[in-house]
Request: fold
Amino acid sequence: MTFSVHGLPVARGIAIGRAVLMASSRVDVAHYFIDPGQVESEITRVRVGRNAVVDEIHRLQHTIAAMGPKEAPHELAALLDVHLMLLQDEELISGVKHWISERLYNAEWALTTQLEALARQFDDMEDEYLRERKADLEQVAERILRYMKGVGSPVAPPAARRKTQQDLLLDDSIDVPLVLIAHDLSPPDMLQFKQSVFAGFVTDVGGRTSHTAIVARSMDIPAVVGARGASHLVRQDDWVIVDGDAGVMIVDPSPIILAEYGFKQRQAELERGRLSRLRHTPAVTLDGQKVELLANIEMPEDAPGAVLAGAVGVGLFRSEFLFMGRKGDLPDEQEQYLAYRKAIEGMQGLPVTIRTVDVGADKPLDDSLRDIAHLNPALGLRAIRWSLADPAMFLTQLRAILRAAAHGQVNLLIPMLAHASEIRQTLSLLDFARAELDNRGLTYGPVRLGAMIEIPAAALTLKIFLKYFDFLSIGTNDLIQYTLAIDRADESVAHLYDPCHPAVLRLVSETIAECNRQGKGVSVCGEMAGDITLTRLLLGMGLRSFSMHPAQILAVKQEVLRADAARLVPWVEQVLESDDPASLIFK
Ligand code: PEP
Ligand code: MG
Reply:
């Protein structure tokens, strides 16, 4: 039966494919595709893990048998019997084999996928006692996963194992596009999937500018977040359509609906083809204003794609993605230096803006470190606050960036500053980093220094910022969050997350105007910059530098080419005076 689930649109386009459910296991599980030649060894890993748990239960049964009924109640023995039975269940074993050999999932992913499928069968049972056995099944699977952690994968780590869509298309076993459905995908999860095969994503939670949504957008595949209940309503292998423009997922579509979306998909491809002709066209408005269209990237490997998309530089390299998912083993100076250098070289002489680490809030370093200790991580130890709290770590990053700056044009961007004292501390650490490099006799290059304006306090004290910095970059994702007191990652308040709120527009336009007055560079690098419905508005405010995901550059360029910047100025004045700016912007 066809039904739809509504969420928030985050990445444009239509995807049609089979659902792959990512189980939300309590154990941290890697998800990646294996090579066909590794099927047997992955099945063996699960078998070894399962046998270890079976042995453990046998040992417990012997211990219990030696105890009296007081120390070891009858229920305990019965429970162990149930666990043994579940472990030997044919469906568990054959299912795991299926996901490994047919879908080429790694062992852990196959086990959690089968667990999810079986758990649903338990949910549907009438008998309450049997329904409750689902918890036992979960315990058993988690014990297997723990044993498997001890049994290292013979398969290379995920980063080296990623396959391109091309590889998988050549592979007969996977010939249908796959759509990933999950309760939540953390930014490290998303990174793992960045170059993988999924044709679309849907998550139960998340806001339009949550970091998960941002990474989905950077992958340029249709995605919907905040589709509450999606991961419960969809079953493994269901056919689904992801409409990333409307923010809807359609499950089990009828042939008529499939035909309609197939048509939309082809139209979108044609539009992409048309836009690609603009790749080498300079971004200049009708009245001759030059506009700089820059790329936001997460990893050095994204740089060549940014050049291909027509970016004239990187306006935001979110360096924190180098630090994520490493289980506390942070990259040292040399590793970081090589990564920044790779990004710089990948941009072939174009400028690269490297932002220092911005972790915390919805970007934990590891899933296991999701901030549950603090009540409101978005207001806590995030970004520059985190860096200043750990000067050794921050100095390592500063030295690495300075060294990489010897290889090209580098801008150093500091996130989430609000206080003059933070600015002064940052600058003195930068001097210290240079002095350390001098002492070690290492070469380094000059950097232009920029601050992100993403806290209203910063936008209201621009004079202080402009005294110290060469340029400002407006992080509208956070500026909106902090101005309106709306958690950007929380889908339940997403309807109030409004880029066109008069307060937000005033802060953005005054920041642009003040920088222009003082002849300082100013850019917008939040999601507003890549939103074609807001291009004219930002141009009319005087913005001439936009930084966005490479996939959005050509569509924004088309808007720039069609705009007359001078004629937009009086219209923007009206918008800024209005109680209801959206009615003028979207009319
Ligand atoms: C922003 O806040 O707008 C921004 C670009 O930074 P991030 O999205 O990484 O917080
Ligand atoms: Mg930000």
Q: What stands out?
A: Confidence is low (pLDDT under 50) at residues 151-174. The longest strand covers residues 14-22. The chain is about 50% helix and 15% strand. Residues 225 and 458 are 30 Å apart (CA to CA).
